[in-house]
Amino acid sequence: MGEETQQQLQPQSLTGTQPQQQPQPPPQEASSDISAVTNVVGVETIIPVESELTNVPPHTNSPATKIPLRPRKIRKVSPDPTTTESQSETLKSTNSTATGKSCGRNNKTVQPLRALAAPRIVARSLSCEGEVEIAIRYLRNADPLLSPLIDIHQPPTFDNFHSPFLALTRSILYQQLAFKAGTSIYTRFIALCGGEAGVVPDTVLALNAQQLRQIGVSGRKASYLHDLARKYQNGILSDSAIVNMDDKSLFTMLTMVNGIGSWSVHMFMIFSLHRPDVLPINDLGVRKGVQILYNLDDLPRPSQMDQLCSSGIA
Hints:
Blueprint: H1 3-9, H2 27-38, H3 49-54, H4 85-100, E1 102-103, E2 108-109, H5 131-142, H6 146-151, H7 164-174, H8 179-193, H9 201-206, H10 209-214, H11 219-233, H12 239-244, H13 247-254, H14 262-272, H15 284-293, H16 302-311
Antiparallel strand pairs: 1-2
Helix pairs in contact: 7-11, 7-14, 13-14
InterPro entries: Alkylbase_DNA_Glycosylase/TA (IPR051912), DNA_glycosylase (IPR011257), HhH-GPD_domain (IPR003265)
GO biological process, one term: base-excision repair, AP site formation
Domain HhH-GPD: 173-314
């Protein structure tokens, strides 16, 4: 094969400079090409890398670094294959509804939603009328071993609802303490705040570690209280948001607070928010109860609790 033929078959380098045999096209032509490609309303232009190589002629007459852009094939972006048809229809409906709405006195049009998160339903509180009866009926039907256990106990009763901030503060103060000692410290803390109504983020942040230490609160717990109060003050948490969060989001947000772990969140969901279907997998008493009720040889580990209590074995 001759040298001239080999040069013709050799691929062009995109970074090298080719001999200029004809005048270089003026920049205006390249700009017009760009406009022709990009000024397509509502359609995203995608130029694959392969097309840059295949559409370059074997012998370009201009430097490779200034190759004039040519109109490429235009294709619409396909929807996410994981999006179901019903989700797509819901998204279209939501976007069209949001576009037609206006808010505020300035009558500004709401922008269409870019994404639609899967809705999460917050379960009704067990303190609502009839919810306890529904829960008990479900447990009887779900597990025959629970039915005689339910018969020998009275239906649960619930304390009056306290604000989530007060309940979380109380939970921190009672951590790793006997009930009597925890009650004593909590009573002094309430007095220091001027009553339960005074337990608000600003008041807690105003109490320094020395003041809290004088009523029996350790330095570490004082830092936990301050971290909780700061997250309220910064808007990361709020009472209204906590009440309306689904269980998964609530667990995620509350465990961001220093000193609040999974056990504390589960206790808060059960005794403060009265949420149903909460399994405190780290609670020793609940784990022992599962072991006794289902005649297990060993105390179930926290990692086993979810599987046991949803499989029908326990």
